From TrEMBL, chain A:
This is Aspartate carbamoyltransferase regulatory chain. Its cofactor is Zn(2+). GO terms for molecular function: metal ion binding. The gene is pyrI. Belongs to the PyrI family.
From TrEMBL, chain B:
Pfam families: OTCace, OTCace_N. It is an enzyme of class 2 (transferase). Gene3D superfamilies: Aspartate/ornithine carbamoyltransferase. One of its GO terms (molecular function) is aspartate carbamoyltransferase activity. Catalyzes the condensation of carbamoyl phosphate and aspartate to form carbamoyl aspartate and inorganic phosphate, the committed step in the de novo pyrimidine nucleotide biosynthesis pathway. This is Aspartate carbamoyltransferase. L-aspartate binds at K87, R169, R230. Its EC number is 2.1.3.2. GO terms for biological process: 'de novo' pyrimidine nucleobase biosynthetic process; 'de novo' UMP biosynthetic process; amino acid metabolic process. Residues 155-304 form the Aspartate/ornithine carbamoyltransferase Asp/Orn-binding domain. The gene is pyrB. Carbamoyl phosphate binds at R58, T59, R108, H136, Q139, L269, P270.
Length: 159, 310
């Protein structure tokens, strides 16, 4: 992390620091992790700070919530450049670059109203397959509808 | 006949199959042709469930006939009956029930992905007989079989698909099936009914050579096959839009005069008014013959899916 952002938020004790998020995507990252802010744990969010690699970037710090690597890799969909620092007792215990999942299950809603996954009375979870990283394209495994970044933003309630 | 070959698998999309699978299916269908009006008692111990949540005549009757010709039995429901039968029951529960009764399930449903979901719920093989505007694999198999029977070959042909390229599921499945062959595709439709992004990206990803025009007269002289589909009134989100576009194209004697002498015209039926009745009596018209192949083709498919010794 750059010295400047350390001025903005203090170190966390136990949790996760997600760095190198493309500027403006921090809220999307939180949504992908299923964090609305109402859960009670501490979340710090820094947007549009200088970055050597990206020009500007966002940073998200989450304290007191355990996140699995699979959960964290989901954010690669909207923040492929993100790096994750797992922190325990103020020390970074592991650090990795997120990698895009090939399958995203149960998280996003298919935009096709006639898709079987949009039937509330059926025991079916949504499932998407990654078909392109750049530009981002996910295909609904059931109805074949293509979803781009704007569709994912809409599905996460951010547009 | 192919002896002991058994697929024992779902038939959800043509993309689940290979070109070699099609060849097996076609040769099996060819050998079934002579039983299509008689009987081949190989599925006497099998029950086929027909779950037609959406009305259908042709597809349902051809599956039913095929199963009966193979000595098997058929249970199921169709159209309005489906609604009353389900009584608010969800798809998953209905499929579980049929799965307990039958050796395979044929499903038609108005929702996209319904057949795939049914296949995940059922242990028996599930055959997709049409789901929403997405897939209709057995129709595409029948279409390909008809072309193969007419030309003995599919590679190298120039194929025009005219009509509702946006909502017709047969178009999706046919283009997917044709992607296994080296064909030249001419897509013909009114501007509003151009193929969806999904189909365009599919064609691009498979390197299919295709072009699009809104006027069949532009390409008729190049075609070996003209495949016509009706405008899918029931899938239009806006009825006003349908009113504006219905009757936008018509295959008539004047159009086919401009075609090659060995041009054939196919149509999955039912037809509304997109092919003039006068065309029925021309040597180019093959849509009734195509419909007739529906029974042997589905006999072959059922045999491959359900087993049954030769
Ligand atoms: Zn879908």
């Amino acid at each position: 992390m750059s010295g400047k952002s350390e001025l903005i938020i203090s170190k966390i004790r136990n949790g996760v620091v997600i760095d190198h998020i493309p500027a403006g995507r921090a809220l999307l990252v939180l949504r992908l992790l299923g964090i609305s802010g109402r859960e009670g744990f501490r979340v710090a969010l820094v947007m549009n700070v200088e970055s050597r690699k990206l020009g500007t970037k966002d940073i998200v710090k989450i304290e007191g919530r355990e996140l699995t690597k699979d959960e964290l890799n989901l954010i690669a969909l909207v923040a492929p450049t993100a790096t994750v620092n797992m922190v325990r007792d103020y020390e970074v215990t592991s650090k990795f670059k997120v990698t895009m999942p090939n399958v995203v299950e149960g998280l996003l809603k298919c935009k096709n109203p006639k898709c079987i996954t949009n039937q509330q009375r059926e025991p079916v979870k949504s499932r998407f397959r990654l078909v392109s990283r750049e530009p981002l394209k996910l295909v609904c495994d059931y109805c074949g509808t293509i979803h781009e970044l704007s569709d994912i933003e809409r599905s996460l309630g951010l547009v | 006949m192919v002896g002991s070959l058994v697929w024992n698998r779902d038939v959800i999309s043509v993309l689940d199959f290979s070109k070699e699978d099609f060849e097996v299916l076609f040769s099996e269908a060819l050998s079934m042709e002579r039983y299509a009006k008689s009987k081949l008692d190989i599925l006497g111990d099998k029950v086929l469930a027909l779950a037609f949540f959406e009305p259908s005549t042709r597809t349902r009757l051809s599956f039913e006939t095929a199963m009966l010709r193979l000595g098997g039995r058929v249970i199921g429901f169709s159209g309005a009956e489906a609604t009353s039968m389900a009584k608010g029951e969800n798809l998953a529960d209905t499929i579980r029930m049929l799965d307990a009764y039958a050796n395979a399930i044929v499903i038609r449903h108005s929702l996209e992905g319904a057949a795939k979901f049914a296949a995940e719920v059922a242990e028996s093989p599930v055959i997709n007989a049409g789901d929403g505007s997405q897939n209709h694999p057995t129709q595409a198999m029948l279409d390909l079989y008809t072309i193969w029977r007419e030309f003995k070959v599919i590679d190298g042909l120039s194929i025009g698909i005219l009509g509702d390229l946006r909502y017709a599921r047969v178009v999706n499945s046919l283009v997917q099936a044709l992607s296994y062959y080296r064909v030249r595709l001419h897509l013909i439709s009114p501007e509003l009914l151009r193929p969806r992004q999904e189909l365009v990206e599919f064609m691009n990803s498979r390197g299919i050579r295709y072009d699009w025009t809104n006027d069949p007269y532009n390409v008729i002289s190049d075609l070996d096959v003209l495949y016509v589909v009706r405008i899918q009134k029931e899938r239009f989100p806006d009825p006003m839009e349908y009113e504006r576009i219905k009757g936008a194209y018509k295959v008539n004697l004047k159009l086919i005069e401009g075609g090659k002498p060995n041009l054939i015209i196919l149509h999955p039926l039912p037809r509304i008014d997109e092919i003039d009745f006068a065309v029925d009596n021309t040597p180019q018209a093959r849509y009734f013959k195509q419909a007739g192949f529906g029974v042997p083709l589905r006999m072959a498919l059922l045999r491959l899916v359900l087993g049954g010794g030769s």
